[in-house]
Amino acid sequence: MKKVIVFIVGVIVGAIACFALLYASGFVFESLGVLLYESEADQQRNFNIFIVVSTVISVGVGWWFVKKTS
User: Fold this and answer.
1) Are 14 and 65 in contact (CB under 8 A)?
2) What is this structure's pTM?
3) Does position 70 have pLDDT exceeding 90, yes or no?
4) Which of 4, 32, 43, 65 is the most buried (most CB within 10 A)?
């Protein structure tokens, strides 16, 4: 049961880190005038990429937390 809780905590930490990184990079790009999308389809594509990447990173961080505590 401890490993499951550690994994879930790791996934949450990974997801928060991904969100913080995305938020910070969006803020920087906006202040520099970089346009990340021109249409709703581009926006949806970027969102889908973020979901996939953040899921992979979150699961990886959860697995790393379990390995680190074992």
Assistant:
1) no
2) 0.82
3) no
4) 65
